[in-house]
Design goal:
alpha+beta; five-stranded mixed beta sheet; four-stranded antiparallel beta sheet; 35% strand; globular; Phage protein
Length: 205
């Protein structure tokens, strides 16, 4: 697993050289690209943003995830910081989130997350360097984390071309998902157990 010194920015972070490719969206049974490749859709047939892979070129754009790397980290349960395997505890796979326990009783149980998991080695680094996490964070072990759908730009039928509407989370089972240009994979977090940061420090000491 690479050390933090080798990780200039989190694995899933997009760089300035990785801007979305211009491609005309057309109307089919939903949306598609005018010049579409087989790799532009996932196994569920959902259209994804076309973004080149140029990690390390330019400057990291913190706060913007690269669609393919985010999707890969979610599918394979890789650490969003270093790209290695996420940590597993007796209670499940490790996630690190902003502390939103005031949002609802039992948070984050049932939360739809676009943040991939983490490894214990990268928790301290994330807490130290991520401005959002410095405002309050929790580590969570998750027993069940099914892929629930995608986040992306929803379109509606238009006169000349599909028209963008809003960014949404959409389940794969929803027929309207064929109108979404996906940018992130979503997992639902179930069976959540909060983990003390001291426990994680001991695990990697």
């Amino acid at each position: 697993m690479p050390s933090f010194r080798a990780v200039i920015s989190p694995y899933i972070t997009a760089w300035t050289a990785e801007q979305d490719l211009p491609n005309r969206i057309v109307q089919r049974r939903g949306i598609g690209y005018a010049t579409e490749l087989q790799t532009d859709r996932d196994l569920n047939g959902v259209l994804w943003q076309q973004t080149p892979q140029r990690q390390g070129s330019g400057r990291p754009e913190f706060g913007r995830a690269h669609p393919l790397r985010q999707r890969r980290a979610m599918e394979l349960l890789l650490c969003q910081v270093c790209g290695g395997p996420a940590s597993r505890t007796g209670d499940g796979v490790l996630w690190l989130h902003r502390d939103h326990r005031d949002d609802w009783p039992g948070w984050p149980e049932g939360m739809a997350s676009v943040e991939p998991p983490v490894c214990a080695s990268c928790v301290a680094v994330s807490l130290r360097h991520c401005p959002a996490l410095r405002k309050g964070a929790v580590a969570v072990s998750v027993r069940d984390f099914p892929i629930a759908g995608v986040r992306g730009l929803l379109h509606r039928p238009g006169v000349w071309a599909p028209a963008p509407v809003s960014v949404v989370n959409m389940a794969y089972e929803d027929p309207a998902v064929r109108w979404v240009q996906a940018s992130a994979l979503v997992r639902e977090l179930r069976g959540c157990t909060l983990v003390e940061f001291e426990e994680l420090a001991g695990a990697v000491a």
